[in-house]
Amino acid sequence: MPTRPRLGQNFLHNPHAIQRVVDALGNCAGRTAVEIGPGRGAITGLLAARCARLLAIELDSELATQLRAELHADPAAETLTVLTQDVLQFDFAAASAAAGQPLLVVGNLPFYITSPILLRLAAAHASLELAVLMVQREVADRVAARPGSRDYGLLSVTAQLYGPVELLFTLPPSAFSPPPKVHSAVLRWRFAPRFAQLAVPEKPFLAFLRLLFAQKRKTLANNLRAAGFAAADVAAALARTAIPLQARAESLPVEDFAALWHALHAEGAAPSSEAAP
Q1: Rounded to whole angstroms, how far apart are CA atoms 192 and 220?
Q2: Fewer CB atoms inside 10 A, N or C side of the chain?
Q3: Which candidate, 67, 123, 68, 87, places its Cα nearest to that of 7?
């Protein structure tokens, strides 16, 4: 079956890599797993043999039909359900409730829709325990980046707020068919949100982070002033948290962002658009 470039189809076919991806999930006996984009089923058969139940979500209806025909003929795959669906519309909460436990996730994410899928998983964090994901190496570097590194940014902080991310290994283009033009990497993401620990509200804090990273070359102070915070309030909050006036967001850990959030609220500060009339 020919691939469909618009769907970002690059199928993993390296046997060693396939085994490593499945092994990265750990012991999934008695567990329900969700596979995003099973494609031609390279990983699906191994997963179905190991998990109590496997939900394979495939947007391409022709591939989904082929996968059902091939794997349902195998008695070892009787725990498999192939869903022809967009993963962005998949109800993780309902699947988790039906399983009576948090879900495991594995997937080879299409490059063109990687970020929306990552954000969808973050939004479904209460229903998830662990995800092992193949993504473009550049994206993996950004998701797993640490403060002060070249790749650290809003995506890094956002993902890591929902739990620790490990960069496991890199895959060359030759591991896929057809080979993509870039290397890929495999991430393991354990869902353990930090909002309660940092004592910050989820959605407002994420919006605050977007302000801090709005212009990468600008300092925190300049980004906050551009967002409508008064210069005096910004200076006072930075002084309260001992964050240097010239600090930029990419140099700071999330703990500093939370401290700055609390300091600004202690000052009664808000962007001009939110100030009382």
Answers
A1: 27
A2: C
A3: 87
Q: 234 is written with which tokens? A: 């910004």
Tens-digit pLDDT profile for residues 167-216: 999 999 999 888 888 999 999 999 999 999 999 999 999 999 999 999 98
Given 193, 214, 243, the domain boundary residue is: 193
Domain that holds residue 203: 197-271
In a domain? residue 178: yes
As to burial, measured by CB atoms within 10 angstroms (0-12 exposed, 13-18 middle, 19+ buried), residue 174 is exposed
Domain termination site, one of 144, 176, 193: 193
Q: Does some domain include residue 277? A: no
* Nearest Cα residue to 23 out of 41, 42, 45, 50: 50
Host H or E run for residue 122: helix 114-123
For 51, which DSSP code? S
Whole-structure pTM value: 0.89
Tokens of 157: 């902080």
